Amino acid sequence: MNEKYQWVVFYEEFADKLYTYADRKDELFEIIREFESKYRYFQYLKLDKKEWWEPRNYTIDPFSVMAVMNRGLTDENRSIIGELYAEIFNISSPVPTMFSGIPFLNNMRSFLGDTENNPLWTLFEVALKYAETKVVTNLV
């Protein structure tokens, strides 16, 4: 694989690891809360803001977790976040040092949100199944 796209294998494994939290969303939220308390890269999430997170049942969607690495940061800082994720989620793929082709998210609000209906978790599941089977799954 082209060195510029070394992130693909890491992101694939990361997505698989995140999917294991589909039925443990509260655990995933606590992991990210722990990161927020220790690392500045996560502080924009403001997990203590009741008005943001209570409507989401204090859960975080997988796209928002991945988005922390996809903000307008240097590749070096994105790699640091990748190292944190690799350690906590036991990702064995090499952490990328280049992120060519991944669009940046707005630094001011790089979380997508979710509701009790979990549409982003559903979309995530459908996307993972499609990546594996190339069969389109009905969302309804």
TrEMBL record:
Organism domain of life: Bacteria
Name of the molecule in the record: Uncharacterized protein
Taxonomic path: Bacteria, Bacillati, Bacillota, Bacilli, Lactobacillales
